């Protein structure tokens, strides 16, 4: 009898240990999500620990982790990007390269996505049931904290375009948008599903985005929120109408309050487009169009070719000799070409482009499979931003992408019913 009891106790230890590690993984991932907004180095360390905890949890759970191809689609696409970036780095990285920053950021992306496979897999297969919704309301408050911090940088410190201390205003904008969406969506997962509070939260996030002055986020975020509201109320036309009217009214009021910075960015965009059409690429949008054109030309010339950062720079220089409107590109060859698919295709050919497209497709498939409204809004933000810039790059935003996906899968009620 004592031997039988001992065996039963022994068998229960891995289960108890995996349960503790699983909860610790998600709590640390949530903390890492927020830290990534303000501290790149610390967020990377916390993320690595989260990845190790996820690996240990999956090992302890063993065969009890039920994975089918539908669940594995998203983790597999994440792993694919990680491996592609790792191979590219190992093939082309040289010491004392003038493009050290490019290689450094790509190896960081590879690490984040390879570790991220385990975190996302754990979230997709987790059986954790959250009966207490306090954590959802806690997540809801995050957007208000973000707006408060943004207001301090803007009006107290006096920044023209806030950057949250991570280096760039665009990086801050993408971080705010992604985390803000999680914060807003969290309230729709509560039993009362407060749609009005979702709208209020979205307005807070939009206000912070305006302070970054990042046009793409300012344009993309309201569209995603409207799509989310429409999807949420699709079966209730009356509430749908009221929700959209309320949301648009608040946006109009907000637009009037921030009319000057919005008008300034809009006028600058129109001026950039006009100058580019006249043959001048030395503007913000003009440089972006030039990058798109040069990246597409590189891909069309040799769709199967993998290039080092140095090779890409040399080939772009040759293009500039033939077409002076592409001259702004030389300033960005040590960064990226401001479009996720074009950037990857210019360095890794058709395989690189396929890796990004496969990730986007896997995101939308997972939205369908898990019936996750939150993941739907989040995926729209990732894809929409990726078509106008590169966010699967460096540390902070890839960390936010992975941790955000994990949290949205975890808080998706439909996940537990699969």
Question: How would you describe the overall organization of this protein?
Answer:
The structure is a single chain. With 418 residues, this protein is mainly alpha-helical. It has a domain at 268-331. It is built from 16 helices and no strands. It has helices at residues 2-35, 40-61, 69-92, 100-125, 134-140, 142-157, 169-186, 195-212, 215-232, 237-257, 259-277, 284-301, 309-322, 340-370, 373-386, 396-410. The longest helix is centred in the N-terminal third of the chain and has 34 residues, at 2-35. The protein is globular, with a radius of gyration of 23 Å. The two termini are 38 Å apart. Mean pLDDT is 85; it is low at 1-6 and 414-418. It comes from Kosakonia calanthes. InterPro entries: O-antigen_ligase-rel_domated, WaaL-like. The chain crosses the membrane at residues 20-38, 45-61, 67-89, 110-128, 134-152, 164-188, 194-211, 218-234, 240-258, 350-370, 390-411.
